[in-house]
Amino acid sequence: MDYEAIYVYTDSTGFPRSNMVSVRQIWPNLISDSEVPVILRGGGGYSSRDMLTLVRKDAFYFSLNNLEDHAKKIIVILFFGVVDCAPRPITYKLRHISKVPLFGNRFWEFIVGRFLGPNRTVIQKFWKYQLVSKKEFKVNLRKILKTITNPNVQVLICETPMPSDYVLKRSPGFEESVKEFNSIKNEIAAEHSTVSVIELERGFAPSYISKEDGHHFSATDHLEIASKIRESLVMLKWT
Fold it and tell me: Can you list the positions of beta strands (E) in the chain?
């Protein structure tokens, strides 16, 4: 790989999971040979909103948008979206009740245990929201790409894989949401000659670390994702 570096911006799906997936097993550490450094950025719970803030900082500190500072090509991989699109029961916004002194935590545990938990699926079917709307996601992604637009930077946007069947049944609307947000990724990528999309919604059936978790990858999943990304890196043709 004749690249100066590979920058990976990912949520927790690209990080290790305690006692389940080690640092050596995560896909960011499997996509490159030892001669090309992989710079892992992001973290648990990162949405496109958080990534935009981080990318803007990195563009300054790492000169991602300054062609003259880099002798070789740079790869930027964007792997996020599940935090943005995951449907949340509208009652999730009430969780701050638990922070009220004296009785808040006990009251929250009571309503979750007696009402919200057992009826989550029904509640979410009729009253739900997304942390980041489709409109904001589109704006954030466009701003991220604008920040790092550079003839020497090739961007790979990874689709969000479909969560496990268990999670889809537990969270009504999740499947449709994943498809809609992946559609946005493809739409925006088509606007740029240096941006490609890695298809993970179809043709990839993750086993995940458990059906209940349903969106964090197993070691086998990480290996397959790394393989798909490496294939895309090989196919890149730069002029």
Answer: 3-10, 38-42, 73-79, 87-89, 128-130, 153-158, 195-198
For 156-195, what is each residue's pLDDT tens digit?
999 999 999 998 888 888 999 999 999 999 999 999 999 9
Q: Please give the structure tokens belonging to residue 62.
A: 């790492």
Residue 85 burial by Cβ neighbours in a 10 Å radius (0-12, 13-18, 19+): buried
CATH of domain 3-86+133-235: 3.40.50.1110
What Å distances lie between residue 206 and 39, 167, 221, CA to CA? 24, 13, 6
Residue type, position 125, single letter: K
With vertex at residue 62, the alpha carbon angle to CA 54 and CA 26, rounded to the nearest 5 degrees, is 65
Both tokens of 19, joined, read 């006692």
73 pLDDT higher than 90:
no
pLDDT, tens digit (0-9, with 9 covering 90-100), for 204-230: 889 999 888 889 999 999 999 999 999
Pairing between β-strand 73-79 and β-strand 87-89 as defined by DSSP bridges: unpaired
CB atoms within 10 A of CB 55: 26
Is the pLDDT score of 46 beyond 50?
A: yes
Is 238's pLDDT higher than 60?
no
Q: State the DSSP string of 9-58.
A: EE-GGGS-BTTTB-GGGSGGGTSS-TTS-EEEEE-TT--HHHHHHHHHHH
Where does CATH 3.40.50.1110 sit in the chain? 3-86+133-235
Q: List % helix, strand, coil for the chain (3-state, nearest 5).
A: 50, 15, 35
